[in-house]
Amino acid sequence: MPSNNELEKGVLYVVPTPIGNLSDITLRARETLENCDFIAAEDTRVSGKLLMLLGIKKPMVSYHEHNKISEGKKICGRLKNGETCALVTDAGTPAVSDPGAELVALCAENGIKVISLPGACAAVTALAGSGIPSRRFCFEGFLPENASERREYLESIKYEKRTLIYYIAPHDLDRAIAELSGALGNRKCVLAKELTKRNEKYFYTTLGELPALLAAADPAVKKGEFVLIVAGASEDADADWKQLTVEEHILSYLKLGMTKMEACKAVARDRGRPKGEIYKIASEMNIETDG
Hints:
Blueprint: E1 11-14, H1 27-35, E2 38-41, H2 44-54, E3 60-62, H3 68-80, E4 85-88, H4 100-109, E5 113-116, H5 122-128, E6 137-141, H6 147-156, E7 163-168, H7 173-184, E8 188-193, E9 201-206, H8 210-216, E10 226-230, H9 239-242, H10 246-254, H11 260-271, H12 275-284
Parallel strand pairs: 1-4, 1-5, 2-3, 2-4, 6-7
Antiparallel strand pairs: 7-10, 8-9, 8-10
Helix pairs in contact: 3-4, 10-11, 11-12
């Protein structure tokens, strides 16, 4: 059926692509890819395969984490000259845990119109199939790679009451589950594997039981891409630290392996008090620890 989705000149179109099943491409997305002047792709090889399957031939430019500054300026220049660009990522919605977000921001700063199309998104797909409350949720993307940053982050979301959504690469699966379980406790969770693909699978379980569930499954189950949905903290989840003195609160974080500075930041965040005030209390405790 023909559509009236004629492209506007000088516009950046944010175009979701299938996360596995080619049939999930929308009619509007396909028309945009067919009629734009050029495509900005995270990986031109991956997007090239998709275009080939769709029977579309279109000039592509590479736009990714390592060239986003230089290429972003070039793309904006072409848009200002009246060309239309379709921004795509390897799979799913561009600019969601993706360098495309910076191109969108750059366009907005330069007065360039951005039109975002609806379509496939692994985070929302997994959430909808999880059965975990979805009225309020946080998309957290990938866990920080740096161990210290990751530890501090995990403590920062310990009392988050909204449902949490994570992307997890297969080589990080065991570590991510262990660290989330250690920080959040035995929360209800759902692990979604290879969404929309032939080996799609949902594990409905808890963070504490998930490792054993995966260990008992075929080793091949750990291959692929994952989305982890974790239930938020209960309403009284922060009751434990409220029973502690500031000093005891600091020590509780130090026992988890945090440095003094990290522990003070965590306590200040929990209690809504200035970091300097908490650090002064910690200094008076004569804590022997780095940081």
